């Protein structure tokens, strides 16, 4: 209401200044600036006296970071990471309660050091080396069967006795992550970086689908997010069939039961943690028949595991896969059958303007998505943007992922900056932090707060983003209410604790 009144005053002042004397009016300028501030993310959040003090402190810290010779959001994250880690703004953001991570993938959650130093050191771990200088792993009670285009399987324990252990482990780390000293040289375009990105998942696959590791990985993933002050996680999960030491395969039901058991165990150890839910995903390279089967499977899983199953999505590079519209017959199946399957579509993770894939942001809404993953293309679709706003469908902004996968170089130019300035509904997430050399959510919050928001974003912006993460989650309305109340208690403690130092 206040912004409408202000806008009216501004328009009147503008008319008056132009009509009366032809000179710009400072009052009009001030009123326009205030109107813009009101419109941005957090613009309507009223800060307490303590929060205002912290906001001022934060502003000073931000100015210091911006005065440094290299501004981290302006350079590639692989070069910016060490600078970010030295920033006082970053350490404050690490301590900040961040609510929920709503866009993370099952095998991109845990830092790869854990996979190498913990998982590959377990008994019965075999490795083979592919013809294109990559690796595959498998756990097996006996010698595993040969795999196409890979060397003979070697027991890793034996190999470590013969080779330099540090060099070997470092080579595994390199295969499991995209992190490199010179990203521009290593990944000159989107095709190259996506190929490496997908290859890294294949490397991890044999490790993370071994049934005992599957459970431990999820537990460690929740731990790393919780240590980064995240209370709740929604995980896009492929739910591949896990295997036992004797090569026996477990069902998808086993995977969901395992997720439920791990989340319960984690909550017993960390009672403040709210929980985790699964968004079942399939690759967008499927044909329509396969997609129909996948949607039916998702409906069954949702019916059998309503507590832990949140909904359905497609994964994989949008530019290479089928557009959402291609799957419309499959995606309307739940409605035809009279059941509800919430959708959380990746859409608009592209810069191919005007293509079928670019339409995904519109089609996601037409197919009644609950959130839009990335929505990088959203700003080029004003009608879709308005519709999303009316439907209160947020975008899940994952800035580091978009930069590493080469949609944007300087994060000050990320389209999310425009959406923030307009107060478009959004949450911040990290997509696959493990592959980018990040942890939890703090690095992405830093990039949003410093790069996308610039000097205009403030503590109110952060507070709205944090509260949005619960508001737009798939939790029940009662759970949202309780979690928001608990989060605000943590928030106030964070504010008062931070002011003490
Ligand atoms: Zn994603």
The count of domains is 3
Tally of individual helices: 23
- Percent of residues in helices comes to 40-55%
Cα-atom radius of gyration: 24 Å
Helix/strand/pairing class, anyone? alpha/beta
Contiguous low-pLDDT stretches (5 residues minimum) are: none
Quickly give the CATH architecture of the largest domain: Alpha-Beta Barrel
- What's the total number of strands? 11
Q: How far apart are the termini?
A: 38 Å
Q: Which fold name fills CATH's third level, the topology of the largest domain? A: TIM Barrel
Major sheet: arrangement of strands: 1-5-6-7
Taken from the alpha-carbon principal axes, the silhouette is: globular
What is the level 1 CATH name of the largest domain? Alpha Beta
Mean pLDDT across the residues is 95
DSSP strand (E) fraction? 5-15%
Query: By CATH's scheme, which homologous superfamily of the largest domain applies?
Result: Metal-dependent hydrolases
Largest sheet: 4 strands, parallel
Structural notes for this entry:
The chain is of the alpha/beta class. The protein has three domains: 1-39, no CATH class; 91-111 and 212-492, Metal-dependent hydrolases (TIM Barrel), CATH 3.20.20; 114-176, no CATH class. Helix content is 51%, strand content 10%. It has helices spanning 2-20, 26-39, 49-67, 77-85, 88-95, 112-117, 156-162, 165-176, 183-186, 190-208, 211-227, 252-269, 288-304, 328-331, 333-336, 360-366, 382-391, 399-404, 416-421, 433-436, 442-452, 459-471, 477-500, and strands at residues 100-105, 125-129, 135-139, 154-155, 232-237, 275-283, 309-315, 346-347, 372-374, 395-397, 426-428. β2 (125-129) and β3 (135-139) form a beta hairpin. The longest helix has 24 residues, at 477-500. It starts with a helix and ends with a helix. The model has no long low-confidence stretch (mean pLDDT 95).
């Amino acid at each position: 209401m206040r912004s409408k009144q202000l806008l009216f005053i501004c328009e009147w002042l503008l008319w008056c200044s132009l009509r009366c004397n032809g000179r710009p009016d400072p009052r009009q300028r001030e009123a326009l600036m205030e109107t813009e501030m009101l419109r941005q993310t957090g613009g309507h959040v009223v800060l307490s006296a303590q929060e205002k003090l912290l906001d001022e402190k934060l502003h000073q810290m931000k100015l210091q970071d911006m005065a440094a010779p290299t501004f981290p959001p302006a350079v590639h994250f692989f070069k910016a990471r060490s600078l970010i880690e030295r920033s006082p703004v970053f350490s404050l953001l690490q301590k900040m309660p961040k609510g929920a991570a709503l866009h993370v993938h099952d095998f991109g959650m845990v830092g790869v050091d854990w996979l190498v130093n913990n998982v590959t050191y377990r008994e019965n771990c075999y490795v083979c080396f592919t013809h294109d200088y990559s690796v595959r792993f498998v756990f097996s009670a006996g010698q595993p069967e040969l795999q196409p285009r890979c060397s003979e399987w070697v027991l890793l324990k034996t190999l470590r006795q013969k080779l330099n252990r540090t060099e070997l482990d470092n080579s595994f780390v390199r295969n499991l992550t995209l992190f490199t000293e010179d990203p521009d040289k290593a990944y000159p375009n989107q095709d190259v970086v996506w190929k490496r990105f997908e290859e890294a998942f294949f490397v991890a696959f044999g490790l993370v689908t071994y049934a005992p590791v599957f459970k431990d990985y999820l537990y460690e993933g929740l731990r790393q997010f919780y240590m980064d002050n995240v209370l709740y996680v929604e995980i896009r999960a492929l739910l591949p069939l896990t295997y036992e030491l004797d090569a026996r395969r477990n069902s998808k039901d086993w995977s969901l039961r395992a997720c439920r058991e791990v989340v319960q165990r984690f909550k017993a150890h960390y009672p403040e943690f709210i929980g985790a839910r699964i968004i079942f995903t399939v690759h967008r390279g499927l044909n329509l028949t396969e997609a129909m089967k996948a949607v039916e499977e998702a409906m069954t899983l949702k019916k059998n595991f309503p507590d832990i199953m949140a909904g359905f999505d497609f994964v994989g590079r949008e530019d290479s896969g089928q557009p959402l519209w291609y799957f419309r017959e499959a995606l309307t199946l739940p409605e035809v059958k009279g059941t509800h399957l919430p959708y959380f579509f990746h859409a608009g993770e592209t810069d191919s303007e005007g293509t079928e894939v670019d339409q995904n942001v519109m089609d996601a809404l037409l197919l009644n998505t609950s959130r839009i993953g990335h929505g990088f293309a959203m700003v080029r679709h004003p009608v879709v943007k308005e519709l999303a706003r009316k439907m209160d469908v947020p975008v899940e902004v994952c800035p580091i992922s978009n930069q590493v996968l080469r949609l944007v170089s300087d994060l000050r130019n990320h389209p999310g900056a425009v959406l923030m300035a307009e107060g478009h509904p959004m949450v911040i997430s990290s997509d696959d932090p493990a592959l980018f050399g990040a942890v939890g959510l703090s690095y992405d919050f830093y990039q949003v707060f410093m790069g996308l928001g610039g000097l205009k974003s403030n503590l109110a912006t952060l507070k709205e983003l944090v509260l949005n993460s619960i508001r737009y989650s798939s939790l029940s309305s009662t759970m949202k209410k309780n979690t928001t109340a608990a989060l605000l208690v943590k928030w106030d403690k964070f504010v008062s604790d931070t002011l003490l130092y």
